[in-house]
Amino acid sequence: MLIELPVIWIVLIDIVLWGIIHISVAYIGTVLPDKYINTEFWLFKEFRWEKNGKLYESVFKIKKWKEFLPDGSAIFKKGFRKKRIVLRDEKYFKQFKLELCRAEAVHWVVILFSPVFFIWNYWWVGYIMILYAVIANLPCILAQRYNRIRFNKMLKI
Question: Which residues contact 126 (CB under 8 A, 6 or more apart)?
Fold first, then answer.
């Protein structure tokens, strides 16, 4: 811990800062122009170990729980809702795929902020904050990746 604070302040700062991080990164991701989202970026590519989406179905049982994930885009006016498909055309599917990449990037960026909590927390709490960030964001990342693989099949990309 680089900064000594009373425990109550540490807890309050942790709670408030996580809220600020989640909302700020999500907002920036939402208003970021489409031209800055590269759907061909290596992170958004399908990897062999994903087994054409079967990994998410067999190991993570994604079909049983993904519908319960919140759609954070509903918070912002400019958000693109990804809970349900509302159109059935190629242009919409391509936009949907872009939005899946945007959402995945937002969740990865939120995780990247977690080491900042080492500054005022005990070292072991810093690791708990990293664990929290992974646990809170990984299900959303898995859902984005799984859905993108499905969209790629529909678009025959």
Answer: 115, 117, 118
